[in-house]
Amino acid sequence: MSGGEYNYAYAKVEAFATKFPSKGGCYPASESKRERFRKHLELIADAMWAIEWNDSGDGCQNEEDLISICLGEAR
């Protein structure tokens, strides 16, 4: 199998992270919190990609490292 095990869900997270503005609408968080959240989503998307590729049989050797980074664990 090649990619797509989870319908490329990581790409939706990536797209969200790149599209939402640093300044929000009605009751937004601060720009710095939004930026930190954006960076966190990018890390999550990287881990999701690795999981999807491994579960699709394509292979990604650093899945554990990418998940550890998201969980705030030492590398």
Sum this structure up briefly:
By secondary structure, the chain is mostly helical. Helices cover 59% and strands 0% of the residues. It contains 3 helices and no strands.
Could you explain the architecture of this structure?
It is a single chain. The protein is mainly alpha-helical and 75 residues long. The chain has one domain. The chain is built from three helices and no strands. The protein has helices spanning 9-19, 31-55, 63-70. Helix 2 (31-55) runs antiparallel to helix 3. The longest helix is centred in the middle third of the chain and has 25 residues, at 31-55. It is flat. The protein starts with 8 loop residues before the first helix and ends in a 5-residue tail after the last helix.
Task: Give the strand tally.
Answer: 0
Beta fraction of the residues? under 5%
Q: Return Rg in Å.
A: 14 Å
Low-confidence stretches: none
Question: What class, by secondary structure content?
Answer: mainly alpha
Q: Compute the number of helices.
A: 3
Gross morphology is flat
Order of helices and strands: HHH
**Please, what is the average pLDDT?**
89
The N- to C-terminal Cα distance equals: 30 Å
Number of structurally distinct domains: 1
Task: Indicate the percent of residues in helices.
Answer: 55-70%
Largest sheet: none
